[in-house]
């Protein structure tokens, strides 16, 4: 109702809105949008939320984004109705047509345009096959790039990029070869997809922008939505967009239907329908291209200044410029990019400027001449102008002088053949220029891009050496970012998990940075519960802003992991020292044993020491709880206790799968749990095949890494039936079952010795101790034989015995007797005999000796029954594994046989109570009879140990479940037929017993062939029923007619009986047979595995059971009661199920297991590599590689041949000219002609300059002094190519601009210009005349001071004094302009302080002059230049300058190659290091 009333209120002003808004059929207004959604039955809440989001977006757009419009209409030159801005008169506002503020002024785009809120934004739909939609906005050319970045990331919800790819080149359609086109599309999309990059283009449907759009389209068609969308941002000029009127709406278009009219666009351009976002730049003009260049450049510079991944590391988002084709504008873009430090990748073969740069990129600078550029311009462009040739030559030379920023992708020579690799390598190559920590930036970029192939080839090379501590940050980033390939790479290159996880804070940070998963939600709940419990216990009042909230700690992690593993384990992580704030963090488990583990002081230090021993276990657990298979697999390979870790992971994952609600995630967890169960099986199988005795030790070894539990216990708790069914595990269980008896003893011998025990002293029964002694004797005899044969004792000494078996002695007579009757096998046989005797006595008492006064036999029966009840009570409280009473009770109740035990005990108690009461004597006997039935059924549990009967009993239990569901279906038909039959035959029978008999019992008997006689008139006898139902022994007669015959329709009852028999006897019974058959077939394959799994509980039960059978077992119960309750002695924990080894033995066992695990991993990888699927993939990859090589040989072979022939021709021509020059000089014998000839000159200048160029190039020409833009001014230098720098070389077209800053006072004109010409820059031409920004004409002296000292007495580290240069954002030497090199610059007094300045000034004369002379400074001109003297002053340790410190003051820095200095100053520092004889 609220929404409808809102629509009605807005509808009142609908007419006024229509007048204000432009008319367009394809725009959807907010009111119409709401109505449309209501008509399509979209939820009202969704409508309101969507409307609110769009209103908020529109409000933000109107406040922050503007467009530009003309404020002065001035008639154009060609048409009077078109303004000089390009728009017609009708497109101007009324005040622009009749301006009052600009009367008499000529139109100027900087003055006569204004910004107003934009009127074009929203969603754009291109239509066509498949809906292609995007987002767009019209922005002013002066819009802040920060606002645009906020628009992209916050309003349009784009994830910040890890890389920015700026694609530039030809704006007109150009041809790309098929293979080059495919490589461009594939490489661009791959690098964007793998790195999460943004692609920025011009956004129109032409040229290189069209190719980018096609690449995005191909990716969208061939990939699923889960792979992520490629972000392609088009920055286009608003004034050149065709059909842009469809985008205009002050309220926003959702969507705007844009029509691409390629044929009718004329000089304008259509937007590309494959881009995802559009920024349409408006400067108030119409039809003028290139308006967006400046804003695009500022936006790219803004994005490049953002931190990569919002990290605090300081690494910013990298930017790369990708060049295809292009003309003069593209060359300017490349030049500006390179000058600003942006790497460029040029695609050779794409045409024009890209091919021109690719041709000269590999040449030395001396060969990149004006003639060569003119030749290439004519080749690729067909025309050239002298001024343009010079400018292009200078720009191209500046570009190729920075080879680390220029990468040419050549299809014929690229070894990888992938453009994505070339793009990423270009970025890494550019980052190598800053030697200080450049590898760190490269690695951060590679991790952010998730390109492990780049890291392997470019960073982790064979020459690089890494410390573990240097890569810890990378390891943390790779783990949190879920990049398993990088984790493996870092581990291979020196990262030590022990060092990485040495600090507990690192592990805690990993848990805090867990992705959204079930375990994280459980941790959050535990933290909240902990805060509430702590607040209640310490009476902490809740206050607003009372401090930081409690965060996840390892205590919470430990409690949650322990809950998943089970309370029988001890805490994996030590509790904090301040226990007041971390009391009993468990929510569900409150067992006494768990509290004792937390409160005991002794084990804590032991747990803490053990918990820190295996960091691989901690990392594996972190990966498992987030269900991350890849990271878990890598971490498991690093675990020391591999089998135990795999079984613990199976337990944790299965518990989480049971608790989680998401079915898909639960299935994934179950699959991962099965995967690690298979790992455990594989490793244990290899261990068992290698050494059975060690493998059995692994099963029952107490693992300090997993809560001091055992592999066997974890497998049982995780319900890992396949692992328990392994032959090695079963061999251990059989050994425990036999006790100290040999497993090879036949059963009949054991039974004979049970009765005639003296036979054990005759060797009739073999004991395990005897077998061990016999094996040791055989080993000793073998060693003696070897020693006798070889005559050496080396072999003897190398064979060491097990310390536990070196001093074994035969069992004594009493020990043999005890071992016999304490064996679980013997206990079981005595228990069978006892149980059969008990059942026989029970049957005799019930049938022949059940008197009012209990007889001796009946009393014996009750004592026997009481001993059985006491045994069940003992089993309930017997907890050697430390489960706690609650867990133990749950485990007890979940066992079917224990339920039968409890039921038999309850029936016995109630039956005995009724039997002793005279009124309920017979009822008591009935209960005891039923109890006898239960005891007989309980007999099946005894035979579960049998390999033959055990699996069959499991099948019977499964079929009982099927039978229950069958009885449910059968009861429907029985009741339906019975009630209908009873209602038809009998009228108003009120006897309940006969009603149940007729409605339920008789229909049930029909199934077994007992057909009723009362539904057929021929078999009706009136004497067999009672008319009124008065005879309780006869059924009531049916309704009779006048002839005293049944009146019911006989045909109906017979039909009902036939239908009932058809469904009940035929359909349902056959269904039951089919169900039983299916269950049998299904269970039959797994019965052996299930039986082996359930066998453990029976073995453990009889292992802990007292030796005497019932009823004598009551004596054992009395002994246990006295020992534990009266004497308070702790229970004896059997080593058969949990054996704590010594430290040396444990280490030796773990090392052996690690070796077996490595063998398993190698065999697994070999199996995977030889599998059919892997072979198919390898074959497909080889075919693809061969095809790629064939294509590469076909296309570029001719081009490569042409290039090689051209180089050969050039070398021949050069040789010819050299020989000609030699011959001319020999003829003339005039040395002066050396300068008149040229080896390679083909220019039209007056003086050849090649030889001079060669000689000068060896010394190096100045570069900074020839930059196009003079610093701190708008002056542009005249382009001076490399070959025209020397004054000796003629340069007729050289016409530099005269410039002098306002502070210099150099305003020379007229005759005084001759005085300026007297000063010539010794470095050559600079492209600008005058004094420039320097203080005087000619040389400007400058002094750089290098103050050094030794850090320590040993003189191992040399330090220098540096200051921070804000303009260059780098360190620099203290210095400044001077009049003489003997005095310090006056400016240093302000920088270094008066005291320090005076100390250094006094030591100037003692300083060592490092270098002096001309410096390539960007302020140099043709007539003024900088000459610098570098002076080294070395100080003693006692000097007062040692006290200087703090930000903004000079700071001591170590002299090393990693220092952050300019190139010139780095060279000077290298010379100083040589003076002091230290390595730089």
Summarize the structure.
The protein is of the alpha/beta class and 1480 residues long. The chain is built from 53 helices and 21 strands. Strand 16 (1358-1365) and strand 17 (1370-1372) form a beta hairpin.
Outline the structure in words:
This protein is α/β, with parallel strands linked by helices. The protein has 53 helices and 21 strands. The chain has a 10-stranded mixed sheet, with helices on both faces. Strands 15, 16, 17, 18, 19, 20 and 21 form a 7-stranded mixed sheet that branches. Helix 7 packs across helix 8 (207-222), helix 42 packs across helix 43 (992-1006) and helix 42 (949-985) runs antiparallel to helix 44 (1050-1104). It starts with a helix and ends in a 5-residue tail after the last helix. 34% of the residues are buried.
How many β strands by DSSP?
21
Assembly type = single chain
Largest sheet: 10 strands, mixed
SS strand fraction: 5-15%
Spatial strand arrangement across the major sheet:
8-3-4-9-7-6-5-10-11-12
Instruction: Count the DSSP helices.
Output: 53
The residue fraction in helices comes out at 40-55%
Radius of gyration: 47 Å
| Low confidence ranges | 1-42, 540-548, 577-612, 794-805, 1230-1259, 1442-1447
End-to-end Cα distance = 79 Å
Average pLDDT value? Answer: 79
Shape: elongated
Structural class: alpha/beta
């Amino acid at each position: 109702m609220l929404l409808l009333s809102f629509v009605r209120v807005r509808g009142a002003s609908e007419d006024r809105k229509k007048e204000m808004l432009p008319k367009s059929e394809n725009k959807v207004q907010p009111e119409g949008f709401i109505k449309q959604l209501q008509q399509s039955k979209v939820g009202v809440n969704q409508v309101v939320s969507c409307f609110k989001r769009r209103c908020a977006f529109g409000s933000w757009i109107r406040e922050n984004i503007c467009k530009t419009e003309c404020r002065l209409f001035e008639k154009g030159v060609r048409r009077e109705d078109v303004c000089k801005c390009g728009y017609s008169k009708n497109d101007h506002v009324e005040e622009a047509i009749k301006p009052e503020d600009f009367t008499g002024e000529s139109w100027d785009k900087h003055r006569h345009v204004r910004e107003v809120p934009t009127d074009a934004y929203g969603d754009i739909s291109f239509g066509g096959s498949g809906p292609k939609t995007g987002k767009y906005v019209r922005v002013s050319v002066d819009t802040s790039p920060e606002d645009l970045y906020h628009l992209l990331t916050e309003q349009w919800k784009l994830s910040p990029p890890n890389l920015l790819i700026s694609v530039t080149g030809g704006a007109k359609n150009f041809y790309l070869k098929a293979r080059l086109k495919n490589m461009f599309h594939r490489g661009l999309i791959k690098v964007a997809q793998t790195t999460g990059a943004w692609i920025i283009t011009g956004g129109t449907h032409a040229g290189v922008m069209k190719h980018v759009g096609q690449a995005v389209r191909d990716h969208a068609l061939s990939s699923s939505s889960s792979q992520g969308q490629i972000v392609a941002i088009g920055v286009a000029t608003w004034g050149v967009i065709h059909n842009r009127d469809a985008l205009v709406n002050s309220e926003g278009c959702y969507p705007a239907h844009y029509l691409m009219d390629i044929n009718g666009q004329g000089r304008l351009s259509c937007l590309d329908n494959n881009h995802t976002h559009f920024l349409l730049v408006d400067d108030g003009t119409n039809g003028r291209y290139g308006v967006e260049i400046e804003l695009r450049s500022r936006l790219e510079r803004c994005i490049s200044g953002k931190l990569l991944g919002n990290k605090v590391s300081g690494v910013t988002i990298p930017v790369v410029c990708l060049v295809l084709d292009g003309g003069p504008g593209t060359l300017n873009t490349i030049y500006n990019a390179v000058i600003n430090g942006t790497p460029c990748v040029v695609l050779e073969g794409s045409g024009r400027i890209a091919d021109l740069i690719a041709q000269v990129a590999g040449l030395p600078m001396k060969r990149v001449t004006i003639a060569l550029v003119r030749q290439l311009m004519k080749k690729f462009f067909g025309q050239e102008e002298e001024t343009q040739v010079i400018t292009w030559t200078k720009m191209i030379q500046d570009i190729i002088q920075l080879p680390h920023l220029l990468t040419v992708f050549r299809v014929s020579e690229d070894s990888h053949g992938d453009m994505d690799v070339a793009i990423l390598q270009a970025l890494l190559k550019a980052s190598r220029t800053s030697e200080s920590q450049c590898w760190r930036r490269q690695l951060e970029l590679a991790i952010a891009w998730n390109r492990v192939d780049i890291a392997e080839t470019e960073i982790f090379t064979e020459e690089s050496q890494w410390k573990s501590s240097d890569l810890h940050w990378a390891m943390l980033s790779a783990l949190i970012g879920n990049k398993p390939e990088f984790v493996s790479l870092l581990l291979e290159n020196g990262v030590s998990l022990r060092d990485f996880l040495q600090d507990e804070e690192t592990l805690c940070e990993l848990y805090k940075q867990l992705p959204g998963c079930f375990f994280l939600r459980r941790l959050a709940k535990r933290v909240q519960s902990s805060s509430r419990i702590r607040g209640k216990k310490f009476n902490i009042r809740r206050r607003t802003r009372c401090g930081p909230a409690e965060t996840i700690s390892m205590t919470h992690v430990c409690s949650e992991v322990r809950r998943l593993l089970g309370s029988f384990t001890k805490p994996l992580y030590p509790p904090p020292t301040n226990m007041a704030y971390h009391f009993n963090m468990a929510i569900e488990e409150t067992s006494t044993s768990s509290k004792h583990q937390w409160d005991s002081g002794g084990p804590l230090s032991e747990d803490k020491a053990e918990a820190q021993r295996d960091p691989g276990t901690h990392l594996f657990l972190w990966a498992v709880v987030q269900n991350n298979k890849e990271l878990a697999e890598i971490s498991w390979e690093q675990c020391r206790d591999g089998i135990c870790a795999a079984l613990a992971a199976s337990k944790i994952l299965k518990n989480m799968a049971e608790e989680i609600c998401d079915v898909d995630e639960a299935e994934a967890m179950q699959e991962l749990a099965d995967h690690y169960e298979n790992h455990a099986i594989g490793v244990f199988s290899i261990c068992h095949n290698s050494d059975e005795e060690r493998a059995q030790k692994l099963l029952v070894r107490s693992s300090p890494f997993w809560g001091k539990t055992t592999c066997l216990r974890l497998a049982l708790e995780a319900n890992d039936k396949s692992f328990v069914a392994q032959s090695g595990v079963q061999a251990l269980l059989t050994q425990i079952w036999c006790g100290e008896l040999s497993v090879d003893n036949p059963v009949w011998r054991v039974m004979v010795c049970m009765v005639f025990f003296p036979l054990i002293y005759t060797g009739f029964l073999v004991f395990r101790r005897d077998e061990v002694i016999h094996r040791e004797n055989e080993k000793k005899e073998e060693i003696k034989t070897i020693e006798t044969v070889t005559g050496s004792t080396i072999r003897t000494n190398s064979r060491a015995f097990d310390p536990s078996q070196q001093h074994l002695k035969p069992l004594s007579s009493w020990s043999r007797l005890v071992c016999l009757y304490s064996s679980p096998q013997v206990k079981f046989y005595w228990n069978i005999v006892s149980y059969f005797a008990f059942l026989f006595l029970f049957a005799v008492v019930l049938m022949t000796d059940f008197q009012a006064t209990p007889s001796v036999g009946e009393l014996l029966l009750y004592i026997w029954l009481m001993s059985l009840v006491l045994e069940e009570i003992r089993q309930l409280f017997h907890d050697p594994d430390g489960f706690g009473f609650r867990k133990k009770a749950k485990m007890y109740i979940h066992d079917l046989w224990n339920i039968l035990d409890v039921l038999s005990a309850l029936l016995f108690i109630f039956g005995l109570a009724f039997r002793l009461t005279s009124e309920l004597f017979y009822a008591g006997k009935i209960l005891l009879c039923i109890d006898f039935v239960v005891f007989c059924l309980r007999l099946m549990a005894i035979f579960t140990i049998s390999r033959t009967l055990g699996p069959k009993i499991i099948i019977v239990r499964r079929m009982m479940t099927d039978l229950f569901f069958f009885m449910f279906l059968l009861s429907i038909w029985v009741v339906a037929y019975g009630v209908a039959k009873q209602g038809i035959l009998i009228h108003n029978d009120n006897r309940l017993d006969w009603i149940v008999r007729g409605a339920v019992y008789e229909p049930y008997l029909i199934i077994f062939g007992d057909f009723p006689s009362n539904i057929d008139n021929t078999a009706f006898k009136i004497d067999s029923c009672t008319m009124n139902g008065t005879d309780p022994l006869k059924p009531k007669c049916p309704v009779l007619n006048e002839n005293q015959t049944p009146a019911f329709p006989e045909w109906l009852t017979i039909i009902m009986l036939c239908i009932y028999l058809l469904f009940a006897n035929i359909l349902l019974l056959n269904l039951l047979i089919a169900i039983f058959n299916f269950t049998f077939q299904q269970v039959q394959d797994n019965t052996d595995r299930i039986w082996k799994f359930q066998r453990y509980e029976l073995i453990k039960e009889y292992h802990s059971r007292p030796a005497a059978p019932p009823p004598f077992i009551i004596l054992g119960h009395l002994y246990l009661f006295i020992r534990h309750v009266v004497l308070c002695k702790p229970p004896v924990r059997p080593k058969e199920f949990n054996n704590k080894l010594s430290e040396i033995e444990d280490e030796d066992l773990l090392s052996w297991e690690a070796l077996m695990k490595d063998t398993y991993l190698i065999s697994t990888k070999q199996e995977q590599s030889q599998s059919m699927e892997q072979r198919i993939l390898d074959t497909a990859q080889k075919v693809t590689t061969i095809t790629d090589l064939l294509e590469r040989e076909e296309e570029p072979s001719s081009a490569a041949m042409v290039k090689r022939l051209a180089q050969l021709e050039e070398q021949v021509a050069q040789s010819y000219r050299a020989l000609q020059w030699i011959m001319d000089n020999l003829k003339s014998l005039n040395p002066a002609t050396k300068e008149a000839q040229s080896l390679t000159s083909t220019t039209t200048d007056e003086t050849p300059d090649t030889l001079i160029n060669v000689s000068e190039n060896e010394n190096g020409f100045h570069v900074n002094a020839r930059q196009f833009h003079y610093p701190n001014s708008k002056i542009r230098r005249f382009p001076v190519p490399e070959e025209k720098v020397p004054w000796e070389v003629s340069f007729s077209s050289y016409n530099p601009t005269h410039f002098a800053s306002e502070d210099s006072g150099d305003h020379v004109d007229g005759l005084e210009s001759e005085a300026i010409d007297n000063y010539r820059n010794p470095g050559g031409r600079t492209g600008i005349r005058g004094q420039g920004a320097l203080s005087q004409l000619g040389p400007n002296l400058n002094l750089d001071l290098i103050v050094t000292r030794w850090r320590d007495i040993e003189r191992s580290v040399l330090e220098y004094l540096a200051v921070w240069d804000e303009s260059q954002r780098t360190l620099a030497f203290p210095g400044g302009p001077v009049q003489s090199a003997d005095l310090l610059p006056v400016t240093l007094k302000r920088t270094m302080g008066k005291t320090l300045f005076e100390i250094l000034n006094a030591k100037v004369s003692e300083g060592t002059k490092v270098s002096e002379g001309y410096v390539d400074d960007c302020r140099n001109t043709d007539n003024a230049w900088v000459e610098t003297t570098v002076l080294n002053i070395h100080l003693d340790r006692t000097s007062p300058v040692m006290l200087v410190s703090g930000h903004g003051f000079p700071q001591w820095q170590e002299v090393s190659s990693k220092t952050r200095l300019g190139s010139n100053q780095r060279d000077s520092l290298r010379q100083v290091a040589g003076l002091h004889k230290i390595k730089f």
